[in-house]
Design goal:
Largest sheet: 5 strands, antiparallel
CATH class: Mainly Beta
Helix content: 10-25%
Shape: extended
Order of helices and strands: HHEEHEEEEEE
Number of domains: 1
CATH architecture: Sandwich
Radius of gyration: 22 Å
Structural class: alpha+beta
Number of strands: 8
Amino acid sequence: MRFSMIALAALLAFGGCADKSAFGMFAMDETHERAVEQMRSGSIIQSFETKALISAVYLNPVYPEEYKDGDYFIAALYFEKRNLDTKKWDIKDHGYTLTLNGIEPSSMEEIKEKDPRRALIPIQNNWNRYYLVRFENVKGSALALKLENNQTGSVVLSYPKEN
């Protein structure tokens, strides 16, 4: 009897809290939802050590009016660093290449910390470097964004192509 009274009191006390869902705290606008849908992540691991991480958002479906003259990505890159000064390294310093369906980018611009375009990717931290990457329009129904290094391996992020 005593247990049932405690259980009933607990049920009544916590039952009133079910009015609001925790998912309401994660409400996103439509653009942010599309960015999350277009985000892909991958890693290159060798001998149980992470050598590189990539997270990228395909911007053409997220901002169709703004990105029309090519295939655009915001990419967050992390490489295992031999020195601690992350401001001194670049993708080529580590021997990596980034291609889309085997084609190198026509431009790759680093996005600094205060740049508002950095908000286009829903992942933010201090150890990544962020880039706006543009490729000439790729034909076909699928896109394969590939980060590769001859010594450590490669990772491919796949996207459907919206024509």
